[in-house]
Specification:
Layout: H1 14-20, E1 31-36, H2 42-49, E2 52-59, H3 62-71, E3 76-79, H4 82-97, E4 104-107, E5 125-126, E6 129-130, H5 140-148, E7 152-157, E8 165-168, E9 173-176, H6 177-184, E10 188-196, E11 207-215, H7 219-227, E12 237-238, E13 246-247, H8 251-254, E14 272-273, E15 276-280, H9 286-293, E16 336-338, E17 344-346, E18 355-356, E19 377-379, H10 389-395, H11 410-422, H12 426-441
Helix pairs in contact: 2-12, 4-5
Length: 442
């Protein structure tokens, strides 16, 4: 391992390191809250630590709701399609909280149909708007908001929510998903923001839209108007660290000792940390492992850039070739598939597929497919493997006190990766929750 990997200087702020380590205690107080499209309650974990108490979680995935219940034991969960179950959310909230209004309602509706990663999938557009029904799920949140009248509402989604156009049958108009949500909530003022989470010291490049709503008749709204401020936390980092900000936390600074034991995808023994069941990676066969090993360490390059024939050693092979021009053998150190007649062709993918993470940038966006080599920039900057479940969780700033299902089993490992990739970083929701709580408490 290179000298740069042996550094023991911690570039993550002490407060964030303490947060990830699970040493941040919940704030005093318990402002009532409701969560829709809750996933596993990971993002809401940050709001909980900042002083909000979630009475109800609702999601279509009953297994993820079990995760909510495990980490928010005093809450109730409602499983099912929220287009049908939203009245149950209202009844369950009033059963626990009486006539009082929630201080906060959070909603993280599915983003797959609006994500750039799935932009090649077009379920059909007509008259200038998307007909994918998943894109209208965000509008379901407004029904619950109109009934419960929470003091504050937070919605999180991909940046595509600001540009994806859908038809709203209730309003009878076509507009972006975000604008239709705003139009359906005339009693609220919205502060939209595109957030780069790396700007908050999080060691991950993750760009998301945060819509923060405050009721216009709430004292918190009057305070915001009086002070000319925003209900969002102030960024602490910037890419280059200019203007008094700290520089982004890079993969070189975040990964490696002393926080993560070295792993290798060549064998079961080397692919897991016996002291941490979540610090584990998939094991690959000889050819797939060699595909990773031949990508130069610290290069940020892709397996498509490997330009040496593994059979005859021919150099500088064109990036578009699947066979060696000299010996005719398949270039199995590149992402290829072999056809029924033995012919080889390159796997068609994005320019970032099968790539090492650039060491001098934060890690790439942690997705639900973090364990797959061909899914965007997923390969460790200098070790021969993808990031482990633990590294993905830490990059998402999920406290290590967060309770997972029995770790270590293959099915659970894949499921944990999926839940982690869907989450909003709890460090940001913790900072955001502190700002909101200060506003709502006056």
């Amino acid at each position: 391992m290179g000298r740069s990997c042996r550094r023991r200087v911690d570039h993550i702020s002490p407060a964030l390191r303490s947060f990830i380590s699970g040493q941040t205690r919940p704030a005093n107080g318990s402002l009532p809250a409701v969560s829709l499209f809750s996933g596993g309650g990971l993002g809401d974990f940050g709001y909980r630590l900042s002083g909000f108490k979630f009475r109800v979680f609702a999601d279509i995935d009953s297994r993820r709701l079990e995760l909510c219940k495990k980490n928010h034991p005093d809450s109730e969960v409602i499983a099912g399609d929220l287009r049908v179950t939203w009245p149950d959310v209202i009844r369950e909230y009033h059963r626990h909280a009486g006539r009082s209004r929630p201080a906060l309602l959070t909603g993280m509706p599915p983003c797959e149909a609006m994500s750039w990663a799935n932009s090649w999938v077009n379920p059909g557009r007509r008259n200038g708007y998307s007909r994918d029904k998943r894109n209208t799920l965000a509008l379901v949140i407004t029904r619950t908001v109109a009934s419960l009248k929470p003091r504050a509402v937070v919605m999180e989604n991909v940046v595509g929510i600001l540009s994806t156009r859908v038809r709203d049958p209730e309003l009878g108009k076509t507009d972006t998903v975000a604008q239709l949500v705003v139009d359906r909530l005339p009693d609220y003022e919205c502060w939209p923001a595109v957030i780069q989470f790396a700007d908050y010291g999080i060691p991950q490049r993750r760009l998301r839209t945060i819509l923060t709503f405050i009721r216009r008749d709430d004292p918190a709204h009057r305070r915001l108007e009086r002070d000319g401020t925003s209900p969002l936390p102030v960024a602490t980092h910037g890419r280059l660290g200019e203007g008094g900000l700290s520089p982004w936390v890079t993969a070189r600074q975040f990964l490696g000792p002393p926080w993560f034991r070295e792993l290798d995808a060549s064998s079961e023994e080397r692919a897991r940390d016996p002291d941490d069941p979540l610090h584990c990676v998939p094991v690959y066969g000889a050819e797939r492992y060699e595909l990773i090993r031949r990508i130069p360490r610290f290069s940020g390059l892709s397996a498509y850039d490997t330009d040496t024939c593994p059979s005859c050693g021919a150099l500088h092979l064109p990036r578009t070739d699947a066979k060696c021009w000299r010996c005719g053998s398949s270039l199995w150190t590149r992402p290829i598939v072999i056809g029924p007649r033995g012919g080889a062709r390159l796997i068609v993918g994005s320019d970032t597929a099968y790539s090492r993470i650039p060491p001098d940038l934060p890690v790439a966006t942690v997705t639900t497919a973090s364990g797959h080599l061909g899914s965007d920039v997923k390969i460790h900057p200098w070790e021969n493997r993808v990031l482990s479940v633990r590294e993905c969780a830490d990059a998402q700033t999920i406290p290590r006190t967060f309770q997972w299902p029995t770790p270590g089993r293959r099915g659970n490992t894949h499921w944990c990766r999926s839940a982690i990739g869907d989450a909003i970083p709890p460090w940001f929701t913790y900072l955001h929750g502190r700002v909101l709580r200060e506003l709502l408490d006056g």
